[in-house]
Amino acid sequence: MxxxxxxxxxxxxxxxxxxxxxxxLAAAGVSVAVVDxxxxxxxxxxxxxxxxxxxxxxxxxxxxxxxxxDRLPEAPCPILGIRVADGxxxxxxxPLSLHFxxxxxxxxxFGWMVEARALRVALNARxxxxxxxxVFAPAExxxxxxxxxAVVRLSVGGTxxxxxxxxxxxxxxxxxxxxxxxxxxxxxxxMGIVGAVAHEKPHRNMALExxxxxxxxxxLPMHGIPGHPHVSAIVWTERTAIARxxxxxxxxxxxxxxxxxxxxxxxxxxxxxxxxxxxxSAMHAARFTAExxxxxxxxxxxxxxxxxxxxxxxxxxxxxxxxxVIEAVNAGEDPGSxxxxxxxxxxxxxxxxxxxxxxxxxxxxFSSRLPPxxxxxxxxxxxVDRLPGLKRFFATRAMGLGGGAVGLLxxxxxxxxx
Length: 418
Ligand SMILES: Cc1cc2nc3c(=O)[nH]c(=O)nc-3n(C[C@H](O)[C@H](O)[C@H](O)COP(=O)(O)OP(=O)(O)OC[C@H]3O[C@@H](n4cnc5c(N)ncnc54)[C@H](O)[C@@H]3O)c2cc1C
Fold this sequence. Notes:
This protein is of the alpha+beta class. It has a single domain (about 5-185, about 280-410), classed as FAD/NAD(P)-binding domain, CATH 3.50.50.60. Helices cover about 30% and strands about 30% of the residues. It has 10 helices and 19 strands. The strands form 3 sheets. Strands 1, 2, 8, 9, 10, 11, 17 and 18 form an 8-stranded mixed sheet that branches. Helix 7 (about 310-330) runs antiparallel to helix 8. The radius of gyration is 22 Å and the shape is globular. Residues about 90-95 have low confidence and may be disordered. Flavin-adenine dinucleotide binds next to helix 1, strand 3, strand 12 and helix 7. Flavin-adenine dinucleotide binds near residues 14, 141, 235 and 314.
């Protein structure tokens, strides 16, 4: 592209959050360009790679409206029950475990397990088909922002003029740094080990969150794959030194470590696919906006994976920003104006701070070995199990149906602008 492209919104970063924002805006008829430093097709790893997201009901509604959910290459696996347990695997069946059943809330599952690869395939299929959406990948973007608009110069040639630029480049967001927005950080000195296991017995769509002394261990139901009819994803938090040792083990020893943490409820287990690991830290940007700039997804915040909510939080940013932009375009307002950005920040920053605080408190509470803390959390688990109102509160939060689940997150479709 040698000439200048004029769009309402230029999104830098086509990860799951940036790409979903692009698809949502394009579905509403808002002109949009999305730029990623990496080419998109290699993000669709050709084989089963064992990574999966727990997608909440509110996020599913957004992906539906954006035309992404229908393009998933395989049906996502519904989560119909969640068991939360504290302590060692043998104690999981004690009265001090907490059971959530989706039927207590209605017909919808708590959420769906979607393979990271499948979400990428769906996004890659959606982006080129959306009218008014321009994709530049791979391309480097040099962004200049000013009071009257933004200019994005592409390394592949050409220039994009936009009313609003969105930073969706993940945790190390160059746009956030370039705007001088400070970020608070917290290192958990722990790693997340992510992968998949095949097991003997069916999971019956039940997830398990097991709070162990060094951090939580989650088993999340997935659909079977050829040769392995019963499969689950695992997300396991471990102190860095132990995690490194575990990651270096052969498959048999690695499988024994998983079995020791998961318990025997699914029979013998075999690790499948690749092993992934991530250093765990939390991050929160002091502001989500600057002149002509909005931050979304991991560029704005990163949380502990304890509740599997990181991407869901990013999808809530997408819904809020898309709604603010669509409303502005409909009203003949400038979608990158200070007023629109203030509306976005007011809608999102408090909610993401609450989630950061909640996951941090959970992490601290469940990793404490102090006897009084252990006793309190066990009493807490027992108390929540006996109080239907409180249980319902936690369950609706897990589904992403807290107070803010209106508009796109509430299942309202996208109305086209104009
Ligand atoms: C162990 C672990 C388990 C998790 N499990 C879950 C879960 O079960 N459920 C859940 O909801 N979340 C989960 N998360 C969180 C989730 O992975 C992230 O929140 C999510 O990937 C954020 O998406 P994003 O699009 O904001 O950023 P990213 O996925 O980081 O994408 C950023 C994109 O920007 C591009 N980019 C980077 N720099 C530039 C640049 N300079 N110019 C142009 N493009 C650029 C990159 O190529 C990439 O495509 C987990 C995280 C961890 C660590």
